[in-house]
Amino acid sequence: xxxxxxxxxxxxxxxxxxxxxxxxxxxxxxxxxxxxxxxxxxxxxxxxxxxxxxxxxxxxxxxxxxxxxxxxxxxxxxxxxxxxxxxxxxxxxxxxxxxxxxxxxxxxxxxxxxxxxxxxxxxxxxxxxxxx
Length: 132
Hints:
Helices cover 40% and strands 17% of the residues. The chain has 132 residues and is an alpha/beta fold. Strand 3 (49-52), helix 3 (61-70) and strand 4 (79-83) form a beta-alpha-beta unit. Helix 1 packs across helix 5 and helix 2 runs parallel beside helix 3.
């Protein structure tokens, strides 16, 4: 059975792009457009991994991440933050709240699939160039 990924983003074009590439890679993809819907989706069907935008209506991605990490049933779900918010402070807070990876938009769909594969234990860590 394929792994289930929950993609949380309020931008339809991003949701469509993420869903297309993850489905093409063999994953089952669920989507949510806001924080509350994401939390409800996780409660109904615990996904194997979350791809989470930070700038969401109602509960932002930081809040979703924090809520999931405080609950024993969801504390270990791998989370990749995928956001346009490219500040070092936002990245620091996201990772401190429990996300395992942080990608900024625009993004490479292939790199996203590689990171999903890695976090689900399907392939080694992607090679990234050091920042200057």
